[in-house]
Write a structure and sequence with these properties.
Length: 157
């Protein structure tokens, strides 16, 4: 028997809908308190997701490689794996992503470079963890679809 059109939708990449929404609401609440306004929160979330899905840097796979190349592969692996997420410091985020990129994000969001790296150190582990609940990197097409779903939920509420 062939699968129905409903069965051909994007594979489950995220936590179940209620858990994901609860976690996303927590993320927005924490960021909102620190960034002081929904515009800044949405901008910061957008930039975090763009880091994960940037074709110029290889998307999530490229970000994983960048972390490995900077000696931070074990931290990234914990976010992808099914166990506890290791924390990452703002300085390590700056090391992995690059000071110039963090500065660009900070300028676009209207915050300091230190604040941007702090927020990314909180956001990236949680977003990557949500995108990889089975401990595997999603395929490129599925990653884009999952991020678009996250964006629509995060940026609309």
């Amino acid at each position: 028997m062939y699968p129905s059109a409903c069965d051909l939708s994007m594979p489950e990449l995220l936590l179940d809908k209620e858990d994901a929404m609860g976690l996303l609401d927590q993320l927005k609440g924490v960021l909102g308190a620190k960034l002081g306004g929904s515009g800044n929160v949405n901008d910061m979330l957008e930039h975090a997701m763009n880091l994960i899905n940037n074709p110029a840097t290889g998307g999530l796979s490229g970000l994983v490689e960048a972390f490995k190349n900077k000696g931070l592969g074990d931290i990234m692996s914990s976010w992808i794996g099914t166990g506890e997420n290791k924390t990452i410091s703002p300085a390590q985020i700056m090391q992995a992503i690059g000071s110039d990129k963090i500065q660009q994000i900070a300028q676009k969001v209207g915050i300091s470079k230190d604040s941007a790296s702090q927020h990314l150190s909180e956001l990236l582990p949680q977003i990557i963890d949500m995108l990889t609940p089975n401990g595997k990197l999603p395929e490129a097409g599925n990653l884009g679809a999952a991020l678009n779903m996250l964006k629509s939920k995060l940026l609309s509420s």
